[in-house]
Write a structure and sequence with these properties.
Order of helices and strands: HEEEHEHEHEHHEHEEHHHHHH
Strand content: 5-15%
Shape: elongated
Structural class: alpha/beta
Number of strands: 9
Number of domains: 2
Strand order of the largest sheet: 4-1-5-6-7
Amino acid sequence: MSGIPPFRVLRAKPLWIANGVITGVLALLFAVFYVGANIDPAGHLTKLPVGLVNADKGAAVGGKQVNLGAGITESIKKSAADGDKIDWKVLDEKEMKEELGKGRLFGALVVPADFTSSATALTGTAATGTPARPTLTVLTNQSAGSLGSGLARTATTQAAENASLQVGKELTAQIGTAKAKLPTAARVLLTDPAAVTVQDGHPLDPHSGLGLTAFYYALTLVVVGMLSANVISGQVDHALGYTHNDMGPLRLHRPLIRATRIQTLAISSTLMTGLSLLMGTMVMAGAVGIMGMDAAHLPLLWLYSVCAIAVTGIGALTLLAVFGTPGMLLVTLVFIGMAVPTAGATTPIEALPGFYRFLSEFEPLRQITGGIRSILYYDAQGDAGLTRGWVMMAAGLVAAALFGFGVLGWYDRKGLHRIPVETTPEKTTVPA
């Protein structure tokens, strides 16, 4: 045994420098990824998809057909041409409901069928009492994300209010001097004739976390897969005799079973695949069975959960096998640090800075969240995110296998074999 006091290592500058660089960079990266992605969503908003529906049937005014709804939609589209924050999608009512039901729209503005007839009725000189106001309907869609739905609501409400003022100018010009003959209430309404109502365009079940259960469920799958990979990697190394395993005061060590790096990764991946059946079941039992999360298509949800954990875990095992100890930092950055801000759940992809939008195209959490969202909120429709989720998970698994076994095979061919830890009687207890 060395006579050097253990605490003397604190004098070693390399220990402080190495750990300082690693922990400092990690702290900086997390701040950049988390805060940077969410610091100004309205300022970074680009082409947020919002529906624009004109269901107005028009009305005959002064012997000719008038459709104020058509004027409103044209006015909104023209005003949007000068900016790119909102991508107005002109749809009919059926198309709009389908798009809301797939999470492709964050909201919608609807001009109802009786808008022109209700608006022109305000110009009737025989009107008495308080005239009925025409309405413009703003639809929200929390299933596509609460923040995105809120941004869409703000934009559609502003557009509806501006449209109402424009309609008021048109009606005032239309009746000219006859405005003086209208009742007082009608004259007041004529300047801003339309009432704006807000409704939920795609209602969710009460235990859906206001549209966030899909994200938190997907995050759970990713975290479980990532942490399980760390556990499995360590336990496989211990089972092969390459590392110690501390159990309280005992340090356990098994006889060495020599294995190539490829064989070790294959063993770990097989164990991860098998245990994913258990882990996927337990996640679903906890979320749905114990906590009461609203969910449909339970067999599909179970299968998707198992596959998501398996793919995440194998991806994490690959990074651990290729990079060793630094691999855990990479796993944390890839599956958590860069993934959470780019998942499109808290902040919509359209409201992220360009770099984060780029990351979202392949970050695993976004792909998994899209599939879970489709299963939970959109009746498991493939084009609502489920197909993309399956395809990207398959692509991720293939990429991990090619990268992992390719690099580890090169390690083995170069003779870069793993060196087992030497043990001494003074610090090792071997169980019978």
